């Protein structure tokens, strides 16, 4: 059965800190790994990763995938209170099925 | 350009009843996936519809069924509701011909009493 495990489950930091969120997976017929940010209801897309070692960046956020060791990390630098959210990692198979982790709840204090 | 829309926003049902949730995909998208998100957990994949057919299914009982219409909108039906069906139900749409990036709707909060 496909499995995605995120760590830590929750994290509390202060503004300006840098955080690293982890995602490990076991899945058959891997296609891609995706990161989402969920603040209220709808998860919003952050990154899609398909190749090992290629960093994706968007402002203060970046992510990288290691397909050999089956994990990905999401880095957020210079955190702001607006970064407080649940960060979800999901893995997609070639057949189009998505498996999500339970998320990391990030709280950024002023 | 309207994103993914879902209705209703909230719903309260009694055990044993049946419920239908609706989803309209983002313009240009032809694939709809449904997820159940219980409190404190990540979304769990229910099923995916493409070209009006169920293409993939997660580990959910047959009480959960769906449909996709020619305009790509979709419905999720749940029969014989259980207390454990209380959750946020998310719909996500994508375009089969692209990178499979999904756009999520705001969800329907279902409470079963």
Describe the structure.
The complex is a heterodimer of chains A (110) and B (113). Chain A is an all-beta fold and 110 residues long. Chain A is 0% helix and 60% strand. In chain A, the strands form 2 sheets. In chain A, strands 2, 4, 5, 9, 10 and 11 form a 6-stranded mixed β-sheet that branches. Chain A has a 5-stranded antiparallel β-sheet with strand order 1-3-8-7-6, with no helix packed on it. The model of chain A has no long low-confidence stretch (mean pLDDT 94). Chain B has strands spanning 5-7, 10-13, 19-24, 31-37, 44-50, 53-57, 64-68, 74-78, 87-94, 103-104, 108-112. In chain B, the strands form 2 sheets. In chain B, strands 2, 4, 5, 6, 9, 10 and 11 form a 7-stranded mixed β-sheet that branches. Chain B has a 4-stranded antiparallel β-sheet with strand order 1-3-8-7, with no helix packed on it. Helix content of chain B is 0%, strand content 50%. The interface between A and B is medium-sized, with 25 and 26 residues.
Fold blueprint:
The complex is a heterodimer of chains A (110) and B (113).
Chain A: E1 3-7, E2 10-14, E3 19-26, E4 30-38, E5 44-49, E6 56-58, E7 61-66, E8 71-76, E9 85-93, E10 98-100, E11 104-109
Parallel strand pairs in A: 2-11
Antiparallel strand pairs in A: 1-3, 3-8, 4-5, 4-9, 6-7, 7-8, 9-10, 9-11
Chain B: E1 5-7, E2 10-13, E3 19-24, E4 31-37, E5 44-50, E6 53-57, E7 64-68, E8 74-78, E9 87-94, E10 103-104, E11 108-112
Parallel strand pairs in B: 2-11
Antiparallel strand pairs in B: 1-3, 3-8, 4-5, 4-9, 5-6, 7-8, 9-10, 9-11
